[in-house]
Amino acid sequence: MMAVGPFANPATRNGRRCWIYCLVMIVAAPRVVVANIMSEPGRVFAVLPAAGASQRMRTQKLLLPWGATTVLNTVLRQWTSSMVERVVVVIRREEPRLLEICHGWDVDVVEVDKTPEMKDTIRLALDWISTTYAPESDDAWMLAPADMPRIRPELISAVATTGFVAPQTITRPQVGRRKGHPVFFPWSCATEVAELAEGQGVNAIVNRQPCRHVDTVDQGALQDLDTPEQYARLRPYTPSDES
Questions:
Q1: pTM over the 0.85 mark
Q2: What pLDDT shows up at residue 95?
Q3: Which domains does the chain have, with CATH numbers?
């Protein structure tokens, strides 16, 4: 007999997603009714904009060392270890090393010719998801910059699980009073990205809709790598630092 719903084969990506959903739901939302726990969640698609020029870092920050690997490898490992269905990364064609790293992971890559505005990067990823995977009304998408290697799979899954409790509500982590990433959007918000006026960013969508917050002490929800100083402060210690 083939297992379905949250008891699907945990060796498959969909099975892992369902098992993670159940486990995180039990830990993060123990008061949710059993019917919500036992029902299979919709799909979650992750959007990782990585087409920026890293101007403040003065070098390609996604290629910087992070522990035994690079920032981008770490980010992709974190996201592909979470409950998301697919990870979509937007990268410029003139970044062959970034493209090579992405092709080593089970992720989708959207290539662009130039550095687009952030909302255009997000729109391109959402268009790709819409065309390739035909999302349904109970699906969702999550957004985080690609320069946040301290976002852990557990945080990603906790935010997504909480989002599915109220599936038409935007959900994001909150550390104290500071709001962080990743942000969970119901799929219906995808069309709103294309309708943003000039000068408006995705924050305009977040600010005009109800938002559920996941309280956490995980500082990774706030820590991006914009400057050399931030990188020096946040990068993991390695034995080579002593030499």
A1: no
A2: 96
A3: 41-232 (3.90.550.10)
